[in-house]
Design brief:
The protein has about 750 residues and is an alpha/beta fold. The chain has four domains: about 1-85, 2-Layer Sandwich (Alpha-Beta Plaits); about 185-375, DHBP synthase (Alpha-Beta Complex), CATH 3.90.870; about 390-500 and about 735-750, Nucleotidyltransferase, domain 5, CATH 3.30.420; about 505-725, ATPase, nucleotide binding domain (Nucleotidyltransferase, domain 5). The protein is about 30% helix and about 20% strand. The chain is built from 21 helices and 30 strands. Strands 6, 7, 8, 9, 10, 11, 12, 13, 14, 15, 16 and 17 form a twelve-stranded mixed sheet that branches. Strands 27-28-26-25-24-29-30 form a seven-stranded mixed sheet, with helices on both faces. Strands 18-21-20-19-22-23 form a six-stranded mixed sheet, sandwiched between helices. The two termini are about 50 Å apart.
Length: about 750
């Protein structure tokens, strides 16, 4: 008789791991116990050598689908004879090795019960088990036990208690377990009318949607504003009231359970990889192409070929979509740019001008989490936004940090990251920090991360831009602050995701909107050689000076006028703009005309010059429309690359004649613009390889969310025998800045240790 002790960590809480070990141990007639220890599990098994070997062989391969266990240690120990196998109470006295699980869509076992009239959870909107249901959005603190969740206010009925305490039941210690007798329920509110019965509330909500009304519906991580996606007037009304004049609206479709989602064919074009990702436990929003003559309202995504769609992510949404039978708009219930709203009081107060109809539930949401968004680029799902089902995102660092570190990201698409030892946890999407509520949620997330993981930051990393809200907060925190330049963080995020060693140099292109550069100008079209902590700027885009500074972000004509004025071209439409002659005089004197090398601003200019868009109502609108307009293989216009003060500079000037040529189609001009930029990147990479010998190319920054450009770049670079990398776990946009800031700080620690 021998005894073994195993310590495992990773994703082992909230995924049915303890009952799995109980069943595995009893199958092999082993005695002992399993116990939670703040993120780790301790397993002690006693039995004959043959049974112990069989247990060890099956331990990881047969783990539950949602579990991601890692073996920390294994040893043979001396232990008196044990009788039977037990699941012991959680131990909170050990050092924290916490891994917080995300929220999961319903599993097949729960779906069978949901549709079974004989089951006691038939049509229950909050059905769950150890393999599905809410996690991250209900956990107040660790260890992950029911009293530490927002379900603590729902005492279990005898039937649920029996399941919860039965190690052979799949709901053994399923912390959100509930049923119609003891669990949360639905309430429908229409003005002063309240319907408190769950079935009646759901029915009233569906009737309102079928009538073309807008309803605010509480989900897993917050409320959505929903309406019929094929009802033009309903969608227009929502846009007018939000207000959100043009930004694409996410869609929720019913899952018809067919292998190819055939019921969606009249609306969107789906490949198998889209369907697999849509049906993953995360249930993300996935960008897909609309079909021609789709029944969808033309107001869903004006000027774009793609829509963002998702399948139901909870039992409530499944029941809702089964009854409605068609696509619904499901946009975040928020003030544009802010985090999603989670409380009934706030949603009525802040969005009552949009709707007076609400479907509430009484399961508290501990923290707001928006829907994740993915786009397939180069055959792989690339995140555009982190959220429900993939948050918190944890990565392993190649080296250990000298002290716990908090990185506070940028101003737009903000996320924060907490890192200690060789672990880093990146938050869900917070958003634009330009509003008081965004700032409040930003601070809440910082407190929340440190409390959840039992780690207190001892220093802060922030962007070098002094006016970012995140940077200002960092400087007022009272902790030591380290600043990282915006595009260094972009480059470091890319390298940090893929490589465990910083000995091999990289060439990373960081193309985005704007960020403060080392010379005090606004960068955004850079090429960096080296590795984290040792970046050398070796390439850039020819800079230009849009008049009006930050106004150029939404008034695209400013960038268009700037590149025409810089090169002596005349733009007829530009001259029609009010006060353009006065603006030209201001530009000549370079008053409030900060120079920028941002590729994103060049895209803005191209969108204006081709006649697609002069004024944007949301960030990235012009570039997105330019990409959508590219329906052909574009003519490549060679762009000169000159070396200026040791830095190679791509000169965009030859593009202007093509962009202004009204005899060519908009598609031709848009495609040529992007093909020429891709070709110039390839040429620049080859020139730098001749000097540096570099073979690893990284692509980082929001511009590389453009599939037309990015896939062209991949094709050109691979033809030149480069190894090309684009983020898989983190977005290419500013959401990755917090992680990049951590990697830069780690590089400083690594350098200081030698």
């Amino acid at each position: 008789m021998k005894t073994q002790r195993w310590i495992l960590n990773g994703q082992v809480q909230g995924v049915g791991f303890r009952p799995y070990i109980y069943r595995l141990a009893t199958t092999f007639q082993l005695s002992g116990w399993i116990k939670n220890q703040l993120g780790e599990v301790e397993i002690v098994v006693q039995g004959c050598p043959h049974s112990l070997a069989a247990f060890a062989h099956a331990l990881l391969p047969k783990a539950p689908p949602l579990a991601k266990p890692k073996i920390v240690s294994y040893q043979t120990i001396e232990q008196p004879r044990l009788n039977g196998f037990q699941i012991l109470s959680s131990d909170s006295s050990t050092e924290a090795m916490i891994h917080v699980p995300p929220d999961y869509a319903p599993c097949q076992d729960c779906l069978k019960e949901l549709y079974d009239p004989a089951d006691r959870r038939y049509r229950y909107p909050f059905i769950n088990c150890t393999q599905c249901g809410p996690r991250f959005t209900i956990i107040k603190c660790l260890p992950y036990d029911r009293p530490n969740t927002s379900l603590s206010g729902f005492p279990l009925c005898p039937a649920c208690q029996a399941e919860y305490t039965d190690p052979q039941n799949r709901r053994f210690h399923a912390e959100p377990v509930a049923c119609p007798v003891c669990g949360p329920g639905l309430t429908f509110q229409q003005g002063d009318i309240w319907i408190n019965n769950t079935e009646a509330a759901l029915s009233a909500c569906i009737q309102a949607l079928q009538a073309g009304d807008i309803v605010a519906i509480k989900g897993i991580g917050g409320y959505h504003l929903m309406c019929d996606a094929c009802h033009d007037e309903a969608v227009k009304h929502l846009r007018q009231l939000k207000p959100r004049p043009h930004k694409p609206l996410a869609l929720l479709f019913p899952d018809d359970q067919s292998e190819d989602l055939s019921g969606l064919k009249p609306f969107v074009t789906l490949e198998k990889y889209h369907i697999d990702w849509l049906r993953s436990a995360m249930r993300p929003i996935v960008m897909v192409n609309q079909v021609q003559n789709t029944p969808l309202s033309g107001e869903i995504a004006p000027g774009l070929a793609e829509v963002g769609m998702m399948l139901p992510c909870s039992p409530l949404h499944i029941l809702l979509m089964d009854a409605f039978g068609g696509p619904l708009v499901a946009t975040s219930a928020n003030v544009s740019g802010e985090p999603i709203l989670t409380s009934s009081t706030e949603v009525k107060k802040r969005l009552g001008h949009i709707t007076q109809q609400f479907l509430h539930h009484n399961r508290p949401i501990v923290r707001p989490v928006d829907d994740p968004v993915f786009r397939f680029i180069q055959g792989m799902p690339r995140p555009l936004r982190l959220g429900r089902g993939c948050s918190p995102t944890e990565l392993t660092l190649p080296f250990e940090l000298s002290q716990p570190t908090l990185a506070v990201g940028g101003q737009q698409k903000n996320t924060v990251a907490l890192a200690w030892k060789n672990r880093v946890v990146i938050s869900a999407h917070i958003g634009d920090l330009g509003s008081p509520r965004s700032q409040a949620v930003f601070e809440q997330v910082i407190r929340d991360l440190q409390q959840s993981y039992a780690v207190q930051a001892e220093r802060i990393v922030c962007d070098a831009h002094p006016y970012y809200r995140s940077s200002r907060w960092a400087k007022l925190s009272g902790l030591p602050v380290h600043q990282v330049y915006h595009h260094h963080a972009h480059a470091a995020a890319l390298v940090g995701e893929f490589y465990s060693s910083f000995q091999t140099p990289w060439l990373v292109f960081t193309w985005d909107g704007v960020g403060l550069g080392e010379d005090g100008t606004l960068w955004g079209g850079e090429a960096f050689y080296g590795y984290p902590g040792q970046w050398q700027r070796v390439g850039t885009l020819r800079s230009f000076a849009p008049p009006g500074g930050d106004k150029a972000a939404r008034e695209l004509w400013r960038s268009a006028l700037a590149i025409c004025w810089e090169t002596g071209y005349h733009w007829d439409e530009g001259e029609k703009i009010s006060d353009s002659s006065l603006l030209y005089q201001v530009w000549q004197k370079q008053l409030n005309c900060p120079r920028t090398s941002a590729v994103g601003r060049l895209f803005d200019a191209a969108a204006a010059l081709t006649g697609l868009l002069k004024n944007a109502s949301y960030e990235g609108q012009g570039p997105m429309m330019l990409e959508a307009a590219s329906q052909e293989v574009g003519e490549v216009i060679p762009l000169p690359i000159d070396k200026m003060q040791g830095i190679r500079e791509i000169n965009w000037a030859p593009l202007i004649h093509k962009l202004l040529n009204a005899h060519d189609s908009v598609s031709s001009r848009a495609a040529s613009f992007q093909a020429s930029l891709a070709d110039s990147l390839r040429t620049l990479a080859c020139l730098i390889r001749e000097e540096k010998g570099v073979t690893q190319i990284g692509l980082s920054g929001g511009v590389f969310q453009n599939r037309v450009l990015c896939e062209r770049v991949f094709s050109l670079l691979r033809a030149e025998n480069f190894n090309v990398f684009l983020g898989k776990q983190l977005p290419a946009n500013d959401a990755a800045l917090s992680f990049g800031q951590i990697i830069e700080m780690m590089a400083v620690d690594f350098k200081n240790s030698y």
